[in-house]
Amino acid sequence: MASSGAAVPFWRAAGMTYISYSNICTSLVRSCLKEPHRSNAANREKVHFAISKWSNGKPESPTIRSDSATE
Amino acid sequence: MYRFAPRLLIRGIAGGSRRSAAPARPFSTDLPAAPTEDATFVEAWRKVAPNVDPPKTPLAFMKPRPSTPASIPTKLTVNFVLPYQSEIANKEVDMVIVPATTGQMGVLPGHVATIAELKPGVLSVHEGNDVTKYFVSSGFAFIHANSVTDIIAVEAAPIDHIDPTLVQKGLADFTQKLNSATTDLEKAEAQIGVDVHSALNAALSG
Fold first, then answer.
1. B175: helix, coil or strand?
2. pTM score > 0.80 for this model?
3. Chain A partners of B196 at a C-beta cutoff of 8 Å?
4. Sign, CA torsion B170/B172/B173/B178
């Protein structure tokens, strides 16, 4: 088992996780596609969710985040 | 803590070699399939309740590990999946070449069981004289002992879906960003951009 010896990939050395690395690679590839495929791919990157913070056992008003192609 | 690592490692190696030649932990591909029911439990149950069938435990519901065939199969079974669709499902092919981080890896039937992390690159599926190429953004390839290969990727596109002008522009942009990057994170992001666009470039010309 590599404890202190193995070379870590450059993105992990810079503090990035594998998932962030993979998502960045994916969005770059998607941005290089030809037109009909590019808009189909952009649809896949859209996220839409609502976050509410809870305090004193009650939810506060939710903030809705609707991003497309987040970095 | 790690100052003692060499000493601990040597102690482990020396201790291991003093034992018999058999490895302490066999490879997972050499293990026999797990038994579907626990013999001691079944015996104890029958002693206590001989007229009632013993209940099935979760182990009995699990499908056993597929056995490694005795002779090398002639074809490779490939499954290539993306999060939003399954590109190739249970297709019998002759060879696939996967873009592993350690280089382009050719997988033939009978390949040793491997887990490979993929880098952005070209995946080619060879069936007779047909070659189907995809550009894969990143993912993993699992090659099992029974010559079933599962390739999972986040995004993959046939090479002719890639736009060369956008690739050149992206490559120029990121090379410039790499030169002007200051923090580690910016450098890493720019380096990823350069890597991905160079791989796209190589895929278009290769």
1. helix
2. no
3. 25, 28-29
4. positive
Residues of B in contact with A30 (CB under 8 A): 137, 155
Q: Which tens digits make up the pLDDT trace of B119-171?
A: 999 999 999 998 999 999 999 999 998 889 999 999 999 998 999 999 999 99
Average pLDDT score, chain B: 85
Q: Helix, strand, coil proportions of chain A in percent (round to 5)?
A: 40, 20, 40
Q: Check: CB of residue B161 under 8 Å from CB of residue A34.
A: yes
- The CB-side HSE value for B146 (13 A sphere, CA atoms) comes to 5
B109, B74 contact by CB (below 8 A): yes
Strand B121-127 relative to strand B95-100, pairing: antiparallel
The answer to whether A25 contacts B188, with C-beta atoms less than 8 Å apart, is no
Q: Distance from first CA to last CA of chain B, Å, rounded?
A: 48
Residue B163 contacts residue A33 (beta carbons within 8 Å): yes
Quote the radius of gyration of chain A (alpha carbons, Å): 18
Among B161, B88, B93, which Cα is nearest to B131's?
B93
> Any idea what the Cα angle at residue B171 is, between residues B166 and B174, rounded to 5°?
120
Angstrom distance (rounded) from CA A60 to CA A18? 33
**Which residues in chain A (4-43) have CB-CB distances under 8 A to chain B?**
4, 9-11, 13-16, 21-26, 28-35, 37-38, 41
Residue A44 three-state SS? helix
Angle between helical axes of B184-205 and B164-180 (0-180°, round to 10): 150
Q: Which ipTM was obtained for this model?
A: 0.74
SS3 B117: strand
Which tokens belong to A15? 């503090």
What are the residue boundaries of the structural domains of chain A, listed by start? 10-68
